[in-house]
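Hi,

I'm pasting everything inline rather than attaching a file, because the server keeps stripping attachments. The sequence lines come first, and each chain or strand is labelled.
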Amino acid sequence: MSQLDEQDLTRDRILQAALESFAERGFKATTVRDICSQAGVNVASVNYYFRSKESLYKEALVYSFKEVDRKYPPAVLASELLPPEDRLRLFIRTLLLRLMDNGQLGLHAKLMAREIAEPTAALDYVVETVMRPRFEMLRTLLPDFVGDGWDAADIDRFILSLIGQCLIYRHARPMVERLCPETMSSPDAINRTAEVIFEFSLAALGQLGTGIGQRT
Amino acid sequence: MSQLDEQDLTRDRILQAALESFAERGFKATTVRDICSQAGVNVASVNYYFRSKESLYKEALVYSFKEVDRKYPPAVLASELLPPEDRLRLFIRTLLLRLMDNGQLGLHAKLMAREIAEPTAALDYVVETVMRPRFEMLRTLLPDFVGDGWDAADIDRFILSLIGQCLIYRHARPMVERLCPETMSSPDAINRTAEVIFEFSLAALGQLGTGIGQRT
DNA sequence: ATGCGGATTAAACAACTGTTTAAATGATGC
DNA sequence: GCATCATTTAAACAGTTGTTTAATCCGCAT
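And the predicted assembly:
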């Protein structure tokens, strides 16, 4: 599918520029000419290396995932041996820090936020390969906190409550910055936010757990 | 600013069509011709009644708010007399139901989700007039649960945790539908979700409150 | 009827979109 | 040196965009 493995320098530059533009402005608002001028290549290069703007978008998406895996290799899986509380703290902290990253990781988070809010065909792939495994991990983890008496749907709701507390800082960032900038004004503030989300969640799960299982 | 108050039928039809298109597809992806054909009016009408696509967007945004206020008049303010727990439950339930509405309310929610994730100049107006008052209300409400010993920034983090649990069902709806559709598959499921979010939050706040105030 | 003014229309406008073309470039093996 | 090939380039393409124009329509007071 790709030509000789000489340099592919042009291709990579397009990919990186595309990632930045798509993450920052979205698919529709990003023009092929923007990408190419930012990458310093000719307009026709996009259709030469990738066959269309849309397929470039898809490749930028998987490229984005590769970059993340390169920096956070196994990460979550390594926590299998830790006690439940530490696993929960690690999950929340990792998720929030990724979402708040200002570098390449942040581009990935922005791109994913767009994909989640307004999915293309690529979302199904992302959900199945990346998100569902982590979701399943939480499904096995949460009964350690709240007990086994809960409806499966309620367990899922708890999981969404955990994730939702983190996602808001990315998906509603402009709102957060206006209403309470102190919560994300510095790395320390973000660390504190992660800790508060963890404590909030732990308190909730622990308290709900003492009820030995409510029902639907 | 508006002409004679005869019918303004055309203007209203454009406004409604614009709201639907902007909510469904976003500002950039929506074309003036789409709006006009959906409204059954001439293309030039947009520039005649509103002077540009962008100012039509702004008017559609305030129109959207008017529609919401028409259906949920004072709502939140009426709860001043209720006990804190009921106020919290009412807030969460109202927020989630608005976010999940499938009618006009839902269009408003979609539009707001777009505006929050990718703000235009209109967001500042929306934040100050609509969101900040509700945020302040929560700022006064939360100490009833967790006590007064908390850092102001931590109180704000609690508030974001509350809101985040609700927002995820709108902002990450495509993801939720793929990972755990049961949490929002029916009105009953959504009601249950609201209840779980409330219980989750109440448990968290109550538990954190027993610590008589942690610190930063 | 007549003329006035807002409302509506079809048509055109210029700018921009993604994509294609065909020629030029440049390295590589012979 | 020459032919071959992928690569790069400027230019053009056809379609769409928001907006403007100028003509037409229509209700209504005169």
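The radius of gyration of chain A is 20 Å.

If the labels don't parse on your end, tell me and I'll reformat.
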